[in-house]
Specification:
CATH architecture of the largest domain: 3-Layer(aba) Sandwich
Number of strands: 12
Order of helices and strands: EHEEHHHEHEHEHEHEHEHEHEEHHH
Radius of gyration: 22 Å
Mean pLDDT: 93
Distance between the termini: 11 Å
Structural class: alpha/beta
Shape: globular
Number of helices: 14
Oligomer: single chain
CATH class of the largest domain: Alpha Beta
Strand content: 5-15%
Low-confidence stretches: none
Length: about 425
């Protein structure tokens, strides 16, 4: 095993986000002699926040991705990109002549090339000739994938690296983007050896929209680890939990409106939201206005290990996700791994891990507060036998489709054996 893996991330193992790599990287480390993690959005002030295996070298790019930092990247790179006839033609074709799409494409290419140029200097410090094979693995079908392609086509062009990308939610779902457009889709699909969406929904979207590359696109799911067994006894007290970054598309405000209906009906409940984000203060104020202070709790941002600790130490009744867009939420998988029923919106790949009326309930993507409240009441009104059956079904589905031990082990075996 004389191979190496270059794993391109946004922040991991710095800052927050990409928590699910914390489990996956251990399986990768067992199959590669050396791993280099390239943290593309990390500034010089940041320090690692997660531990990594011994055979992992961390390479932060050291570049600010603030608004001014991104503007600086465009100023540094625009002229070179515009003067490159091949890139100019690629951007024109990708944007189909639309001005805002073309601007977005130049911005995308500028960020990618600025990261690539800084990365080259760091890679020059290492001897990659010592390895028999090199694998380039982008965690996102976005900037990291574009940098991976540049590494393949230029820096490692004589080494024929196997080059892949996962794809999740925002990096597939063009309709969520303000411009309904993502840059360089066909270029990336043409240049990468494989693209692995984490949901079948993502696979279907890419295959239908880009049929020329459907042979490259296959689902490779994320997973979660098994937690300790949960007490399947349902208490009279409805203990609701949600877990996500607090931003608009997660629609935590809609969940609060539904909980306000439970309050009006004098249903005894406690809601805990795990996670922070840009809408944190707004959502806290809304909860304070709509709910009694003993009916809710916000943990703020916590490490993934602390999320799992919360589940171990609290006897939750049901997990709720009201997001308007998703890939396949690992937060739902984590809840199911301790046999929690799930109420979630039918968006992205959620329906691939929630079996309606068996492991929980699926809401319409444009659900109302009344619909959310009605399913919460349905959970609360179940007898012990019905509730226990749903809990057991949730765990069984998780074990069959979301168990990280099997999913990540198989994935690491697969990508380490290509070259």
């Amino acid at each position: 095993m004389n191979n190496c893996l270059l794993l391109l991330t946004n922040y991991y193992p710095f800052h927050k986000g990409e928590e699910y790599l914390e489990s996956e990287v251990e399986y990768l480390a067992a199959k590669f002699k050396q791993i280099y993690i390239i943290s593309t959005m990390v500034s010089v002030e940041m320090r690692p926040t997660r531990k990594v295996p011994r055979n992992v070298t961390i390479l932060p790019i050291g570049i600010k991705h603030s608004v001014m930092g991104k503007i600086g990247m465009v100023f540094r790179q625009y002229r070179t990109i515009h003067n490159d006839e091949v890139k100019r033609q690629m951007i024109n074709e990708s944007s189909k002549g639309k001005k805002m799409a073309k601007f977005y494409s130049y911005y995308f290419e500028s960020r990618s090339m600025d990261v690539y140029e800084r990365l080259k200097e760091k890679l020059d410090e290492f001897d990659f000739d010592q390895y028999d094979s090199i694998t380039l693995y982008s965690y996102w079908l976005y900037i990291t994938a574009r940098v991976a392609v540049e590494l393949k086509n230029n820096y490692f062009k004589d080494k024929n690296p196997y080059t892949i990308s996962r794809a999740h939610g925002y990096d597939i779902n063009e309709h969520v983007n303000l411009l309904k457009f993502l840059p360089e889709r066909e270029f990336l699909l043409d240049s990468l050896d494989n693209v692995f969406p984490v949901s079948q929904n993502g696979v279907d979207f890419l295959k239908i929209k880009y049929p020329n590359y459907k042979y490259k696109v296959e689902v490779r799911r994320l997973g979660s680890r098994k937690l300790n067994d949960k007490d399947l006894t349902k208490n009279e007290f409805l203990n609701i939990v949600s877990c996500s970054t607090i931003r608009k598309l997660k629609r935590i405000d809609l969940l609060i409106e539904a909980l306000a209906l439970l309050r009006e009906k004098q249903i005894n409940f406690k809601w805990t939201h795990i996670g922070g984000g840009p809408e944190y203060e707004h959502v806290k104020k809304l909860a304070s206005k709509k709910l009694d202070k003993h009916q809710f709790e916000f943990t703020g941002h916590v490490k993934n290990s602390e999320v799992l600790d919360w589940y171990q130490n609290n006897n939750a009744t049901v997990f709720v996700n009201t997001s308007s867009s998703e890939g396949v939420p690992v937060s739902i998988m984590e809840a199911m791994s301790i046999a929690l029923p799930v109420i979630a919106t039918d968006v992205g790949g959620t329906k691939e891990i929630v079996d309606p009326h068996v492991t929980g309930f699926l809401l319409k993507s444009d659900c109302t507060k009344e619909e959310i409240a009605s399913y919460l009441i349905k959970i609360q009104s179940m007898n012990q036998g019905e509730y226990k059956q749903m809990c057991q079904a949730a765990y069984l589905l998780w074990d069959n489709h979301c168990n990280a031990d099997k999913l990540y082990s198989d994935f690491a075996n697969e990508i380490s054996s290509i070259n």
